[in-house]
Amino acid sequence: DAKTTQPTSMDCAEGRAANLPCNHSTISGNEYVYWYRQIHSQGPQYIIHGLKNNETNEMASLIITEDRKSSTLILPHATLRDTAVYYCIVCLIQGAQKLVFGQGTRLTINP
Amino acid sequence: GAGVSQTPSNKVTEKGKYVELRCDPISGHTALYWYRQSLGQGPEFLIYFQGTGAADDSGLPNDRFFAVRPEGSVSTLKIQRTERGDSAVYLCASSLRGLFRRLNTEAFFGQGTRLTVV
């Protein structure tokens, strides 16, 4: 699976949009981009995934660049409960969803 | 329950002992995964089951680690002759992926079992 690069940490003010970048320059055509987050002392939680089109759900939006080498997760109105480690993962479309977690981005939402 | 359940939530054992960690996946989920997470690190893949069979066990660190899923639902991760370095949170996840369903769906994680080897 392709590697991803994320900033180690980010801060965002409560109520603002949180934009979390991820680079995946070696992604192949049969790999999705997945985002998970892990709140302290809990298991990881799925947020969103996409292949090449932008995606939106009730939690977040995912913007994937046209060349698919990077993406941005957007939390439109961050709350204190969004404080967590956010993981960007690339994963094959078929076969085992063997998630390869990196270090992630530690996002802190400040009041 | 509606989610992935792992028991026990905490386990303290002495070095050299044998431990079993249990995972109850979401009903109907055919895929089951075990991960291990050390403090400050992201989860590390251990093994993946599709149904009853281990489809990918490439993440098991050595032959002291073994996992089973005899009826295609509940899974047990077994660790023999535990070492202090085995101390970590062991996470289980499941996802819906049938034989004729080629595309992956998201994985749902349990709360984990915190294993401490003293």
**Count of helix runs of chain B:** 0
**Poorly predicted runs of 5 or more residues of chain B:** none
Measured between the Cα atoms of the first and last residue of chain B, the distance is 32 Å
Q: Considering DSSP H and I runs of 4 or more, what fraction of the residues of chain A is helical?
A: under 10%
**Number of E strands of chain A:** 9
Q: What level of helicity do the residues of chain B show?
A: under 10%
Mean residue pLDDT of chain B: 91
Beta-strand content estimate of chain B = over 45%
Largest chain interface and its two residue counts? A-B, 25 and 28 residues
Q: Based on CA inertia axes, which overall geometry of chain A fits? A: globular
Low-confidence stretches of chain A: none
| Separation, N- and C-terminal Cα atoms of chain A | 37 Å
Percent strand of chain A: over 45%
Order of helices and strands of chain A: EEEEEEEEE
The sequence of SSEs of chain B as H and E is: EEEEEEEEEEE
By secondary-structure content and strand pairing, the structural class of chain A works out as mainly beta
The order of strands across the largest sheet of chain A is 1-9-8-3-4
Give Rg of chain B in angstroms: 14 Å
Largest sheet of chain A: 5 strands, mixed
Radius of gyration of chain A: 13 Å
Give the rounded overall mean pLDDT of chain A: 92
